[in-house]
Amino acid sequence: MKKIVTFGEVMLRLSPPGVNRLAQTDTLTMHFGGTEANVAVSLAQFGLQAHHVTRFPENGLGRSAAGYLQRHHVSTEFIRYGDGRMGLYFLEMGAGSRASQIIYDRVDSAFARIQANDIDWDTVLDGADWFHWTGITPALSQGAADCLLAGIQTANRLNIPVSGDIVYRSNLWQYGKTPQQIMPALTEGCTLVLGGKVLFSEIYGVVGSTFQEAGRAMIERFPRLRYITDTKRNSISASHNQLSAKLFDGTTVYKSRVYDVQPIIDRIGTGDAYMAGLIYGLLTFNDPQRAVEFGSAASALKHTIPGDVNLATVAEVETLEQGDSSGKLKR
Amino acid sequence: MKKIVTFGEVMLRLSPPGVNRLAQTDTLTMHFGGTEANVAVSLAQFGLQAHHVTRFPENGLGRSAAGYLQRHHVSTEFIRYGDGRMGLYFLEMGAGSRASQIIYDRVDSAFARIQANDIDWDTVLDGADWFHWTGITPALSQGAADCLLAGIQTANRLNIPVSGDIVYRSNLWQYGKTPQQIMPALTEGCTLVLGGKVLFSEIYGVVGSTFQEAGRAMIERFPRLRYITDTKRNSISASHNQLSAKLFDGTTVYKSRVYDVQPIIDRIGTGDAYMAGLIYGLLTFNDPQRAVEFGSAASALKHTIPGDVNLATVAEVETLEQGDSSGKLKR
Amino acid sequence: MKKIVTFGEVMLRLSPPGVNRLAQTDTLTMHFGGTEANVAVSLAQFGLQAHHVTRFPENGLGRSAAGYLQRHHVSTEFIRYGDGRMGLYFLEMGAGSRASQIIYDRVDSAFARIQANDIDWDTVLDGADWFHWTGITPALSQGAADCLLAGIQTANRLNIPVSGDIVYRSNLWQYGKTPQQIMPALTEGCTLVLGGKVLFSEIYGVVGSTFQEAGRAMIERFPRLRYITDTKRNSISASHNQLSAKLFDGTTVYKSRVYDVQPIIDRIGTGDAYMAGLIYGLLTFNDPQRAVEFGSAASALKHTIPGDVNLATVAEVETLEQGDSSGKLKR
Amino acid sequence: MKKIVTFGEVMLRLSPPGVNRLAQTDTLTMHFGGTEANVAVSLAQFGLQAHHVTRFPENGLGRSAAGYLQRHHVSTEFIRYGDGRMGLYFLEMGAGSRASQIIYDRVDSAFARIQANDIDWDTVLDGADWFHWTGITPALSQGAADCLLAGIQTANRLNIPVSGDIVYRSNLWQYGKTPQQIMPALTEGCTLVLGGKVLFSEIYGVVGSTFQEAGRAMIERFPRLRYITDTKRNSISASHNQLSAKLFDGTTVYKSRVYDVQPIIDRIGTGDAYMAGLIYGLLTFNDPQRAVEFGSAASALKHTIPGDVNLATVAEVETLEQGDSSGKLKR
Amino acid sequence: MKKIVTFGEVMLRLSPPGVNRLAQTDTLTMHFGGTEANVAVSLAQFGLQAHHVTRFPENGLGRSAAGYLQRHHVSTEFIRYGDGRMGLYFLEMGAGSRASQIIYDRVDSAFARIQANDIDWDTVLDGADWFHWTGITPALSQGAADCLLAGIQTANRLNIPVSGDIVYRSNLWQYGKTPQQIMPALTEGCTLVLGGKVLFSEIYGVVGSTFQEAGRAMIERFPRLRYITDTKRNSISASHNQLSAKLFDGTTVYKSRVYDVQPIIDRIGTGDAYMAGLIYGLLTFNDPQRAVEFGSAASALKHTIPGDVNLATVAEVETLEQGDSSGKLKR
Amino acid sequence: MKKIVTFGEVMLRLSPPGVNRLAQTDTLTMHFGGTEANVAVSLAQFGLQAHHVTRFPENGLGRSAAGYLQRHHVSTEFIRYGDGRMGLYFLEMGAGSRASQIIYDRVDSAFARIQANDIDWDTVLDGADWFHWTGITPALSQGAADCLLAGIQTANRLNIPVSGDIVYRSNLWQYGKTPQQIMPALTEGCTLVLGGKVLFSEIYGVVGSTFQEAGRAMIERFPRLRYITDTKRNSISASHNQLSAKLFDGTTVYKSRVYDVQPIIDRIGTGDAYMAGLIYGLLTFNDPQRAVEFGSAASALKHTIPGDVNLATVAEVETLEQGDSSGKLKR
Ligand SMILES: [Ca+2]
Ligand SMILES: [Ca+2]
Ligand SMILES: [Ca+2]
Ligand SMILES: [Ca+2]
Ligand SMILES: [Ca+2]
Ligand SMILES: [Ca+2]
Ligand SMILES: [Ca+2]
Ligand SMILES: [Ca+2]
Ligand SMILES: [Ca+2]
Ligand SMILES: [Ca+2]
Ligand SMILES: [Ca+2]
Ligand SMILES: [Ca+2]
Ligand code: NI
Ligand code: NI
Ligand code: NI
Ligand code: NI
Ligand code: NI
Ligand code: NI
Ligand code: NI
Ligand code: NI
Ligand code: NI
Ligand code: NI
Ligand code: NI
Ligand code: NI
Ligand code: NI
Ligand code: NI
Ligand code: NI
Ligand code: NI
Ligand code: NI
Ligand code: NI
Predict the structure, then answer these.
(1) Domain containing D134 — which CATH number?
(2) Which domain of life is it from (chains A, B, C, D, E, F) (predicted)?
(3) Is C68 contained in some domain?
(4) C269 CA distance to ligand 25 centroid (A)?
């Protein structure tokens, strides 16, 4: 069984039932999520041995968060516990022309207090087949950025493929560094990057007039890179989206079908579901076209599942990937 | 008031709230359902005097199941209680491109343990205007098949019309007999059969290149037959289907309008809702076209009602049958 | 901050969870609503100082109703308490081709028992910038009609703009008067009327072959009138509607865009949301076109919010009014 | 199987979840109850054939109320439907030193509009073994009192035993008659009366210094009477009561044990549970001591069951009646 | 109507349903509470005009918190909105021998960021009859302590009575000051102090061997003081407590009855309920004995009410204060 | 960290919310439990490395059951998946004098289909510090009994202590063997047995007039035995019990304090909680008195926790074990 390692913050998500607004609810539904942990949970459903590495507060919330990951078959053996708070976010789910809204409350979390040496990466990555990170982690604190860099470098030393979703959130990055200072060293270690030409230009100064050209320039700049991937979303409403993805391997751009998604049950984590599906595809199929299709189908399915994480199985993704979107009852 | 009798297993259905998956829920919603009992409940909403005949375990689950039927105005006076378990099924409701999934857990139920003589059919069918059965019942056990045959033969003797939905589920039929051995004798007694040309060929060896031709051949083979009916479903997704039905009376094929159903709240029991609507129509209208339209409209409405059973009234079905699908608020 | 005053009955709404039918639920969800109070709540969300004037029973239900208005930032300082019951309505929410259904239970409510002098309108309307009423109130009792007339006349004396939604419900008006006897005097005091040419003709005998002509005739008949407005709804199903509105200022008919609303979460109070948006627009923008667009966008958004009242903010309405219906997640 | 008939209003009960107050809830739990119907439901659980006679509004609430009785095995075949509203009550459940509170909203219900001839008592009471009524019914309207009297007289003519719980609620009796005018004729027809010496004196002017003496005087005054019974409750708190009952047969006073009830889950309908238990006991045991013990044990058990009705079985009551209050798990 | 002003932080409380543990729940129930706001809500139920002064984050959580206070009739007109987070606490409710547990998450809240001049105390306290604060506020930040001091001094200048609950929580006080430095100046302004001899000695160095002697010494040290009060709790289990209180007016110690509280529904805020009852009593009765009895009865009742705030009415408290703890149903 | 291994069936438990009866609920709450797995979960909360060994159906229910164990920190790495159904039980929770009732539905479960060689005990028990089994397992099937015997013999070979709760349920044992045939060989391998003199006599023919004497005789008969333990329960009602335990080490009988437990939230699994506490105590304290006290305190605490498993921590148990049952709030 393939072993995968992810690293990043997990937050407690609190949302009113259904599409109620915060101002009219007296109950909140709990989920836990975080972009990297979402990838781990999804890969665990696909049958891989997924380990998520993070740092939790040493209290009932931290233990519940670990319980959530375990319940969904992710190993928590490398999680550290200590001071700091549980990162939170409040999600008001939208519908139709009303957008969903998030209030983040993650400042000074136990994860943000992680230090470079808190994780013994040699032990964690021993025997691993993939390591995944995102641009959220280095945006949180110097310690998180340092610890991540140590992880990537260990993975490189052990010849483990590394994927990075280089997502940029401008309201993070409060600790005195810019992505331009921090991201290049992290990207050096990557085999696969999720991002588009705007981000490539802003963060690395790498330019190209098309996805393919920008991708080629990225591969030149970061020689370890073998794949560039990106997703595309046409938002007709909060309940109706159209999705697709593409994958560039330095030579060819492989494009997935376009998925028409309606209704949308829960849009959170659908990008992470794509990434997990793509990683699964690359590790399994030796066929970039099928990998990008598998990732896109996984992402489409995630829109039908409440919570941040994709609880779809390989069989379900394959059904959709192979063109059956009929949703016919399975007995 | 017309009296109708149905016969078959009722199962406790357990499903996570909303479209949650089993792996993420700590609560299950209860409904009771079974293809024949669903027909009875629907006809009870239409104002007929519906009796469902079955066998339940003699415990709190059996009593709750009876309470469920009674709550929805079906008489339980002919239900037997005894050993064996309550049949169950777990339903994970899908959405969009994610299919609903059922885990059946009905082996060795109290109903499957029924014996040929457990029901006093002369008493049960006294004064009845219709008797309905389906191909699920003879698939469960020799006792169930025997008891059903006794019921059909009694109905025939008393000149009560009999309808059979000849649905075939290959993972049932575990007791040593095949449908080819059992179904013909049951079908002999039918006035109306729900099925299509594939089933006619597989089960009875009756062939015809169109619905009409196959229907004509069935009527030749089973002289008591007056009507053949079938439904058609185009599954765009688990949330969006298109439905229609047709009815053949030996001469003419009457086709219903096509109903575009979106969103789908609960697809379970929509075929049974059609059958109940058709039976009501045939008993009431003396107009095959109107009967098949009434059945199709009833089936379309069932998609908007949670649970296995159609709780729509005659007035609601007529509104839709007469072309008003606007869903305008009624004050 | 602009002060607005509304006057009318508030009912406790009781509805099964989701789209369940009354016959299958053991729980009811509570909301409070009433066409005039709905306008007040919506304007309170837009930041205005909204006061609702009504009469509640002096018991836990009346106090809960007041608490509901306060929770949503409406002042209840002018509410009276006394004998009589809480008005109620039971709402069964439909979906697709199944219509929602309401059972009213409001006879002899505490509000219907209000008397002409129960409200000190000079105090209530002191400093007010708008007064709003609807045709439900004078339909309930002579006392309610008298008290409303006193309010309108006070507003006229204080030069406060008055809007009237002249909705007509034939099953109300049980106290011996007809709308033809009562409505003209109330309409005399109006600056703005919501209604269409059929109502104008039936209630006032004012005729016109188009909305514009009928509007012009109304303005002639009621010289205080400056605006006529109306909404239009195309009901494709209970889950899918198309909406628009128009506003006539004596010269020009301003038409809003057509909003395609799908899915519909809760259709109740969407007309009131339009009225609140229009009032806000007229008080804020000095641009009739923008006012009618703001009202229509507000109404469209209300369809996504559970309950009778529109909890959308100005920023949310403006996003939609300015053409962004993408529902993209806001972080 | 013994047939029992009860007659009276059934109300929809609405209560916040748990012990929340009305002012803090957004959800209400539904139950249906009424003192006479509660007796019918309890006897149905004991295996008798119970029919409740009442009049419901012809809408979804009336049909749900009938469904509730049917679900709990009470026959509704003699229920009438017509105009008028569903009677309601709002219940705030107390705990410890905080009392439960009820807001009644039952004026002008469909039941209160019943007329003397609405029920064909000869058909209803055909073959009945017991008829039960209470002092609530004649307090609601002249029609209800008349219809009840017709029922009692029919029972007398058919030699069916009649029990009357002569409960007096002063805030009812709004239609112009007093209990002193109405109750004696109803009591004439009774075999068994539930009440105490204060009521006997106030309503009938029948006095006695002890329960026994007052009972003897009642039997003299109403020669058809064979039994007088009463219950006693010591309220330590809303969560802790002590209960007992006594039964006088003209000769001996049979006293039950004292039941210490803690915790109290739902106190509503516990008197009705006693009455049902006593009726069952008198019909079954031919032993007044055992009958009063059975009734008291039934009443004690009802305190542990949510809702107005006693869902305990004969076996459960017998366990407690025979002294086992250990509550040990039954597998 | 008497006007009362309270000042302090309000937190969002999140707790699993019932007595479930955090590790086993997927839903959290919302309440809002804070020791000073709890006093305001309780006094609002008693019919006083209560204003709570605080600072909330300018987002949906801050607006929901204000809505909560308004729903329970507390005025929020003097509340400020700005940066910082919503203070939170997670509550796991215990039972029997299992203690309830709280995880606080209130660091850097919008309230803690309040500054000395953020509140215009002259406007806020205009016409006020009482001002209440607690030792939580000065423990949170220098700004909160400064702002509170300004409030107390304004109240003193306007001759408004001031009460202080001098509760000491050692894990607060993180901003560099000690209670010994901060509390004396605040206590200078008090008319009434809630505390005991241990606190008096630790915080002020004021000693006395009994409550009476220590109280006398406090009054000497703080000449504005007229009353010292304290509560006493005997914890038999998390579900069973015994409560009493005493009030010293410089001359006499008035002791309340001892209340045996079982079961305990929610123990949070029961001290605040005492304080509110005492304030109400002192403002209303001119009888110290009755005031302390009213406060104790209010506190006992609060144990039966879910949430942080006491929703009991004056009538309910008086029933218990006058010795009726029978919890008998009120119709 | 100590490693513990348990072996046995896990069932899905389905229960109505609160103390509702099956006949009145439409929702069921899910828990998973089984006497041996309950011990594992409890020990996992105490910080030990607990592995539960069982066989689950290869479907969503089996995966959810595994997720439940993982969520509560029990390793599922040695669990097998295959054919057969999920074992179920329906639990109706009682209160006061009403007993809880269980309907088992576990026949032919995936676990009952386990075969002797399905578990590689050498791998499973490698490095283990304790192995625990109960008399439920050998009662289910020959395969389960055989597989258990293999486990015990492997533990003996590896010198791992073995505990057996020799509980006897007469309605199990349906596969043709008696406990007298099967239990002795299993008991041969035990270090610790939970049981009393009645069971010792019935199952093994080992007699003794007191617990001490019977224990001594057991140790003679089964030379590997070092400890005999038993629990005692006085059931005052379903909501109020008194508990204690004793432990015999061949020389001395160590008795725990008596715990008065009121209220009882959930009685299921309280014996398993004792066993887990005792095992923890024996592995940790080297003090039999403290071990039996720790076990009894753990059992008392379990009564306050919903579900089958004890989620109490070592710190919580120690608080109670050391005499603090005050349930005082922990901040
Ligand atoms: Ca609400
Ligand atoms: Ca999730
Ligand atoms: Ca969950
Ligand atoms: Ca159903
Ligand atoms: Ca239901
Ligand atoms: Ca609302
Ligand atoms: Ca609330
Ligand atoms: Ca009930
Ligand atoms: Ca759970
Ligand atoms: Ca609260
Ligand atoms: Ca129910
Ligand atoms: Ca559990
Ligand atoms: Ni899982
Ligand atoms: Ni589309
Ligand atoms: Ni969820
Ligand atoms: Ni029904
Ligand atoms: Ni369509
Ligand atoms: Ni349902
Ligand atoms: Ni609000
Ligand atoms: Ni559309
Ligand atoms: Ni709502
Ligand atoms: Ni029942
Ligand atoms: Ni007692
Ligand atoms: Ni209930
Ligand atoms: Ni309130
Ligand atoms: Ni006590
Ligand atoms: Ni609450
Ligand atoms: Ni856990
Ligand atoms: Ni005790
Ligand atoms: Ni649970």
Answers:
(1) 3.40.1190.20
(2) Bacteria
(3) yes
(4) 24
Find the domain containing E212 and state its range.
Answer: 3-322
B98 and A71: CB-CB below 8 Å?
A: no
Q: Are strands E162-165 and C192-194 parallel, antiparallel or unpaired?
A: unpaired
Reported ipTM: the value is 0.96
∠ CA C67-C69-C74 to the nearest 5 degrees?
A: 125
Task: Give the residue from chain F lying closest to D317, CA to CA.
Answer: F98
Q: Which positions in chain D touch F24 (Cβ < 8 Å)?
A: 306-307, 311
The answer to whether the CB atoms of A28 and E30 lie below 8 A apart is yes
Q: Is D17 on the interface with E (CB under 8 A)?
A: no
- Considering only CB atoms, which chain E residues are within 8 Å of A59? 103
For chain B positions 226-285, those within 8 Å of chain A (CB to CB) are: 235-240, 263, 267-268
Q: How many CB pairs under 8 A join B and C?
A: 84
Q: Does C23 touch chain F (CB under 8 A)?
A: no
Question: CA of D324: which chain F residue's CA is closest?
Answer: F97
Q: Are B161 and B129 in contact (CB under 8 A)?
A: yes
Helix axes C179-188, C142-157, angle to 10 degrees: 20
Count of CB pairs separated by less than 8 Å, E with F: 84
E329 within domain boundaries: no
- pLDDT tens readout for residues F213-246: 999 999 999 999 999 999 999 999 999 999 999 9
Domain annotation covers residue B329: no
Q: How confident is the model at residue D1 (pLDDT cuts 50, 70, 90)?
A: confident
* Residue B328 forms part of a structural domain: no
Given the structure tokens 């937050």, which residue do they identify? A11
F60: nearest Cα among F30, F38, F89? F30
Q: Which of E98, E240, E268 is opposite residue F301, by nearest beta carbon?
A: E98
- Residue E39 host element (H or E): helix E35-45
CA B279 to chain centre: 11
The mean of the pLDDT values for chain F is: 97
Using CB atoms, pick whichever of E263, E306, E330 lies closest to residue D20: E306
Mutation target to probe the A interface, by most A beta carbons within 10 A, among E11, E27, E63, E91 is E27
D88-92 and D101-105: which strand pairing?
A: antiparallel
Cα separations (Å) of F109 from B11, B112, E231, F8? 19, 18, 58, 12
A313 touches chain F (CB under 8 A): no
Q: Concatenate the DSSP letters of all residues of D118-163 into one string.
A: SS-HHHHTTT-SEEEEETTGGGT-HHHHHHHHHHHHHHHHTT--EE
Instruction: Answer yes or no: is pLDDT of E1 > 90.
Output: no
Residue C171 amino acid letter = N
Q: How many domains does chain D have?
A: 1
CA pseudo-torsion sign F79, F82, F84, F90 = positive
Q: How many residues does chain E have?
A: 331
What phi and psi, each to the nearest 5 degrees, are found at residue A137? -60, -55
pLDDT, tens only, F241-278: 999 999 999 999 999 999 999 999 999 999 999 999 99
Give the H or E element holding residue F179.
helix F179-188
Q: How far apart are the first and last CA of chain A?
A: 29
Pairing of strands B88-92, B11-15: parallel
